[in-house]
Amino acid sequence: MDSISCIPVVDFSEINNLRFDPESSAWMNVAEGIDEALTKTGFVYLKNTGISADLINGAFQCSDDFFNLNQETKVKYRKPFETSIKDMNTDMYNGYVPPGAELEGDADYEHKEVFDLGGNKGRKYPDAHVPDFKRTYESLENELRKLTLRVSQVLGLSLGLEEHDFFLKGLRHLTEPSVENTTILRALYYPAVGEGVKGYQNSTRCAPHTDYGFITLLLMENDAVGLEVKAINGKWISANPIPDTVLVNVGDFLELWSDGRYPATFHRVQLPTDDSAKKSRKSIAFFVNPDDEVNVQALSTKFNATSGVVSKEVWNTLKHIQKRTSTAYSAGL
Ligand SMILES: O=C(O)CCC(=O)C(=O)O
Ligand SMILES: [Fe+2]
């Protein structure tokens, strides 16, 4: 089965320019579509989000220009791994991560390079080598922030929260950047890999993992195949790019907030076994985390209103993120 029939597509065009109104049928329709998609797979494609294709293409071009620089130049922008986990601050969330430095799940090696822009301290941009990078990525981040705010309002509706705008309270950094946070805009690059490469047998592009934030917004180049999502029945289904869409998935915090209704599903990017491995893959992820100080616990929704909240866990945002990040980077430290 292909991705189109497995992961639903929800059209955002009706609410794109519409003020938030929990009574309006346009918002309710979108909320129902999102609820159905997220309960089924934890993933949903959003169509007609209003983010310009030129802006997205421009960001992929900058990404291409950066990752095609030689290694000596790229490591000038390296993330400061020498920062100890204990003293981890937002510097840790910025810069270039070379292949092999970050590992998800139980992979031996990931053929993956990333460039992160995160938090509100220690940002660096490779403008000396890619002059449009800062301007393009800042514009894209701005658009992704606006879309995230809309999606958060839809989620308040889809869960039937009494306080429709509840999630906005925990995402103040999206409108007030001085609020401490660990949200990351990440350019991902998976180089072309030939079967002759050492360690090919035990390596992958991105090992199975759940995302640890609130939600992730993912942009993929049109030919960037390879992403797979583990469905509730345990089968891996492909989440191939659909032109003019943004793929959204549930992170650990939304799973907890929704009391498990919206699962943070496992996903992975395998090394293709056919000719497409000879091509690189590029995507851009916006990992949205709640503000650092937010404590997350299961909410009373319209779905558990009579049965009661099941999960008793409480997670502090920063602590949870630090725990998950230190596991992912232990390979590179
Ligand atoms: O490369 C992709 O398209 C997805 C990567 C991913 O799932 C992640 O970095 O969390
Ligand atoms: Fe992911």
Question: Number of helical segments?
Answer: 9
Q: Which overall shape is indicated by the principal axes computed on the Cα atoms?
A: globular
Mind summarizing the main beta sheet? Answer: 8 strands, mixed
Radius of gyration: 19 Å
Q: Which structural class do you get from the secondary structure elements?
A: alpha+beta
Q: In total, how many beta strands?
A: 16
Low-confidence stretches: none
The sequence of SSEs as H and E is HEHHEHHEEEHHEEEEEEEHEEEEH
Assigned CATH architecture: Sandwich
Number of domains: 1
Strand order in space, largest sheet: 1-2-12-9-14-6-5-3
Ligand catalogue: 2-oxoglutaric acid, fe (ii) ion
Task: List the topology elements.
Blueprint: H1 3-6, E1 9-11, H2 13-16, H3 25-41, E2 43-47, H4 53-67, H5 71-74, E3 95-97, E4 109-110, E5 113-118, H6 133-158, H7 166-169, E6 184-190, E7 203-204, E8 206-209, E9 215-220, E10 227-230, E11 236-238, E12 245-250, H8 252-257, E13 267-269, E14 281-288, E15 295-297, E16 314-316, H9 317-329
Parallel strand pairs: 1-2, 4-7
Antiparallel strand pairs: 2-12, 3-5, 5-6, 6-14, 8-13, 9-12, 9-14, 10-11, 10-13, 15-16
This protein binds 2-oxoglutaric acid (AKG) and fe (ii) ion (FE2).
2-oxoglutaric acid binds at residues 188, 206, 211, 218, 220, 227, 267, 269, 283, 285.
